[in-house]
Amino acid sequence: MGTWRAYIEYSGFNIISESLHSGLIYEYSPNDVIDKQQNKFLINDVYTGSSGGTVAGLGVLMIFDERDNIFFPTKNHMYKIRAQFFGSYFGGDFEYHRLVIDMRQYFTTKTAHTFAFQAYAEYTAGDPPFFRFPALGGAERMRGYFNGRYRDKIYLTAQAEYRKIVWWRLGIAAFAGMGDVAGEMNGFNTRTLKYSYGAGLRFVFDEEAKINVRCDFGFGKGTSGVYFALEEAF
What we know:
The chain contains 1 helix and 14 strands, in the order E-E-E-H-E-E-E-E-E-E-E-E-E-E-E. The chain has one helix at residues 40-43; strands spanning 2-3, 6-15, 17-32, 53-65, 76-86, 96-108, 114-126, 135-136, 150-151, 154-167, 170-182, 194-206, 211-220, 223-230. Strands 1, 2, 3, 4, 5, 6, 7, 10, 11, 12, 13 and 14 form a 12-stranded antiparallel beta sheet that branches. Strands 8-9 form a two-stranded antiparallel sheet. It is globular, with a radius of gyration of 19 Å.
């Protein structure tokens, strides 16, 4: 794939309180399929987007955020909903819509042991290109799987993580999760459910802003991955 992507998300409209606010999203991305590598599904145009095309859409979002810190939250919660609509009206070649629900909760004990939880759902309907199907894996959710190894119209996942700064600026983390993709809701079952688990190291890069550099080692069903990133996974 040859592509670039412009994604603009603005969430500055307060509703009732500073914790609850809404915003707008615009996304534009031209895509070219450079090398189909003898893939019969792409060569025969079995999937929408087999020859590339432009993805463009407008969306709305709503966020309820009471976390104590956006980079290293230790308490409270964040709930986020995004609804996007793609099509020719916005300059794109594909007609579909996308809904994302992201729910996060954080707890910290008196001895500074932090527990983080996330439930995430992504749903697409209409005729999205294959390369914009929700993708399982990556550095944030279902660590241990290559991002996009499993794709379909619906993606459901949940994960939990333990975090602790143990000495000076050094910390540790342990995480576990499960999830899967399917073409429709009745396509999910326990036999094909994917699991993810692993551990990581943390270095407090900025003590005042509480920004960590992380290195995570993730494992799944016959797969693994190493991830380096700034900020926590969620």
